[in-house]
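Minutes, structural biology subgroup

Action item carried over from last meeting: produce the C-alpha cell record for Mannose-1-phosphate guanylyltransferase (Novosphingobium resinovorum). EB confirmed the sequence was re-checked against the source entry. Recorded below for completeness.
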Amino acid sequence: MKPLASDTAMVLAAGLGKRMRPLTATQPKPLVRVAGKSLIDHALDKLGNAGVTKAVVNAHYMADALEGHLKVRKIAPAVTLSDERELLLETGGGMVRAADLLPDPFFCLNSDNIWLDGPQDVFAELSQAWDAERMDALLLMVPHTRALNYRGEGDFHLDPNGRVSRRRQGRVAPFIYTGIQLVSKRLLRDAPEGAFSTNILWSRAIEEGRLYGISHQGLWFEVGEPAAIRPTEEWLTRA
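Output recorded by EB:
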C-alpha cells in the first residue's frame, strides 16, 4: 500500500453557515454538534486517525469561538489557523491565502463533513489513486445510493479513466462531491485575487484534462441543515 500522499490537510471552516440557521446564529457551523461531537472535531479526528499530522483551518465567521475551540485540542493533527477575519475568501481564495502553510500536494476538506470509511480510510483511498504527473486535483465522489440525506441532482460524471466532467443543465449526474479532495499546488497557479470559488480552478483543470475523481466506498452524510442532524445521528448509532 502506498503511503499517504501528504501529511497535511486544509480544513475549510470559514463559511457563514446560513443553511444551518438558527443553530449558527450563536456559533460557527463547524462547532455544531452531531452525535455528541462538533462537526470540525469529526473531521479532525478522521484526519488524525488516518495519520495526517498537520491541519490548516481557516476561520472567518465567529472566528474567536472557533479558534478558542481549536486551542484546547491536544490530539493530532496539530492545527494552524489561517485567519480570514477581515474578508471571507470562499473556498478557492481560502486555499490561496493558506498556500504558504501547505505542502504539495495537500488534502482539503470541508469542516462540516461526516462520513463512514469503506475498506480503507478516505485519505488512503485518495493516496492510492494519486498521480501527480496527471492530476491537478483528485476529488472524492460518492454515488447517490451512499449519499445519505442528499436530495440534489448530483455534481459530476467520471469517465472510465477517472476524469471529471460537470453535470449538464437539467440532467442528473451520478456522483456527488463529498467535500474531500487531494490537491496539487499546480491547481492554485495564476489564481484570482481575493474571494473566489474553487470551481474556477476546477473548470480550468477539466479543460486541461487534469481534474480526476474516485468513488468513495463507504457512506457519506449531507449535514447542511438542522433537519439532517437527527437522521445522521441515527445512522451513526447503527454503524
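Discussion: The chain has one domain: 8-238.
Next step: EB to file the record with the rest of the batch.
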